[in-house]
# Entry
Amino acid sequence: MEKPPKTPRPRKGPIHPPRPDDSLHPEIGLLLERTIGRFVISWARLESTLTHFIWFCFDLDISRGRIITTNLGATRLIKMLRDIGQIELGEIHKFNLSIILDKVDILKDDRNLIVHGNWARNNRGRTAIISMRVKSEDPKYVVGEVFTRQKMQALVQTCDTLRLGLHRLHKECAALRNKPEEQHPEG
# Structure
């Protein structure tokens, strides 16, 4: 079976220089704050599912699994699972895992911006995340991206869908090994 095509990263919008009358305010509203919290929880569950799948592939219990995965961030978890999947999984499962991990990797960029960026609302009422970490094409500008509540809700849904897809793949692989899937202690 061929490798699945790489999932393309979505293009970010163009960088617009700030208007002379632009100003930012730190208040973003409780509904959006709640949705950000939902995303953070969904992402933590997704990372936990990545970790548990790695433990399954290496046939590790929780005490040994923690030693290997405790200090790994999402980038390393994704790479480790991709690498071990190449060795441990059959062709169709490798194919499906690759698609899921591509999407998780793309979502990780939004997660980093959501968690590490500075949230603000401009004087026109648009909510954005400003980040010094993300490099802009023009070094004299700071990167900002508009994140509406609807966009955040869609990201929560995407995160949950990827987690469930990964969980379903884990169950299929466990059934092929004739080994019951162990319940992950963190959900």
